[in-house]
Amino acid sequence: MAHWTSPIFKYGMLVAYRAVEKSKIIITPDLSPRVAVTFSSAVGGQDALLNADRRIISENRLPHPFTNPNSCINMIGGKISVLTKATGPITSTVTACATGVTSIIIGTMFLAQGKADIAICGAVDFALIEPVVAGFAAMNGAYTPKPGLPEKPAAKASCPFSLHRRGFIVSEGAGCIIITTKEFADLNGLKYNIEIAGWSMTSDAHHFVAPNLGTVKRCIAESIENAGITPKDIDAINAHAASTKIGDKVEFDALKDIFQDDMPPVTDQLHSRSKNKD
Residue 129: what are its φ and ψ, rounded to 5°? Predict the structure, then answer.
């Protein structure tokens, strides 16, 4: 790992290793071709490019030979494939904040098409580099304190669906889940209590960051229909809620149109209230 300096590889490989270990699945040479990897990143290893740029400018030296591999988003899935010995289908689909969910959906598609029995799905990001943080701030997306007031700690600064929201917190992290077909899980005695019942993907075809109410609503409605249930069957909503004025409004309006007066608990809304009682 000495050459793989970007944190996305350490974070991504760690969560993938832990997820496979917790699943109790042993990827044997015979099983390997039936294991897919759908793991990606929104910004990738841009820290490697920044370090290379500084090395060129300040030291007049060529970049490290692993600069480009460190910055390539597809390499995180490749490293996880090497780590786990999975040799089935592999993709690294980039969809900004939805990258992790998209990885799960693509993995689900591989399973449904019979291309794999197992999929290692996830996403990782390390956005804590100056150009990325400054870029989000310039777009009025990243959190900035209200003029004249002190900066809030990160745990309280992000408050989606709140009148006091000031943007999202730029951070780092990774997540991974293992999905299998029901047949594989039952045949191998794997324990599970969650099912991917339905999903949908839509394109806003609208704006580079502002969401489109119509396509957001259609995505939610199609997911519910695909699952064979109705809005009244939904017990909770895990909202995106980026703590931006336009993003929060469109998401709320879409949920309100779908669920009407039967809105179930919304996780980010409850989380925001609990964090901002003071």
Answer: -125, 150
Q: What is the dihedral of CA 29, 107, 208, 244, to 10 degrees?
A: -110
Distance CA 64, CA 10 (A): 18
Q: Residue 35: name the closest of 76, 81, 67, 73 by CA.
A: 81
Provide the β-strand partners of residue 119: 36, 179
Q: Where do the domains of the chain lie?
A: 1-126+171-195
Q: Which fold is adopted by the domain 1-126+171-195?
A: Peroxisomal Thiolase; Chain A, domain 1 (3.40.47)
> pLDDT tens digits, residue range 19-47?
999 999 999 999 999 999 999 999 999 99
Token readout for 135 is 């870029």
Distance CA 168, CA 184 (A): 40
Q: Is 176 helix (H, G, I), strand (E, B) or coil?
A: strand
pTM attached to this predicted model: 0.90
Given a contact cutoff of 8 angstroms between Cβ atoms, the answer to whether 213 and 255 are in contact is no
Find out whether 209 and 181 touch, Cβ atoms under 8 Å.
no
Q: Is the sign of the CA dihedral 199, 90, 124, 22 positive or negative?
A: positive
